Amino acid sequence: VQLQASGGGLVQPGGSLRLSCAASGGTLNSVAVGWFRQAPGKEREGISCISSLDGKYYVESMKGRFTISRDNAKNTVYLQMDSLKPEDTAVYYCASSGAPSCAPSFGSSWYPSPNFGPWGQGTLVTVSS
């Protein structure tokens, strides 16, 4: 399933933004969806994953300011980002592994696997005053 992230933009430090992830030509309801980001000059990193059964998992370093959710009626997954910092500036992507779970995970911690993809164009988030 090809996923497309949207909702990025320019936000001031300390502000909030909600990103959306929608599917083209398929449904998100039966698969896990992960959020990732890639800052300039850095590798892509995982943020959060939500399973088909609404289990929510976060990369340890991302806990606290990001909240993932899904609305099956709208076939959309969201990433709420609060207390944004300049270092959150990046292109944000969503993708699915095609499986219903976010494994591997432990407790609420997520360990992104290389099975997620394909990658859409992403949405740019710029945190700056």
Query: How many β-strand runs?
Result: 12
Structural class: mainly beta
Strand order of the main beta sheet, please?
A: 2-12-9-4-5-6
* Computed CA radius of gyration, to the nearest angstrom: 13 Å
Distance between the termini: 36 Å
Total of DSSP H or I helical runs spanning 4+ residues: 0
Strand content: 35-45%
Low-confidence stretches: none
Order of helices and strands: EEEEEEEEEEEE
Shape: globular
- Overall mean pLDDT stands at 94
Name the helicity range. under 10%
Largest sheet: 6 strands, mixed
Please outline the helices and strands.
Elements: E1 2-6, E2 10-11, E3 17-24, E4 33-38, E5 45-50, E6 56-58, E7 66-71, E8 76-81, E9 90-96, E10 105-106, E11 109-110, E12 123-127
Parallel strand pairs: 2-12
Antiparallel strand pairs: 1-3, 3-8, 4-5, 4-9, 5-6, 7-8, 9-12, 10-11
Describe this protein's structure.
- Helix content is 0%, strand content 45%.
- The mean pLDDT is 94.
- It is built from no helices and twelve strands.
- A six-stranded mixed sheet has the order 2-12-9-4-5-6, with no helix packed on it.
- The protein is globular, with a radius of gyration of 13 Å.
Descriptors:
mainly beta, four-stranded antiparallel β-sheet, 129 residues
What is shown here, in short?
0% of the residues lie in helices and 45% in strands.
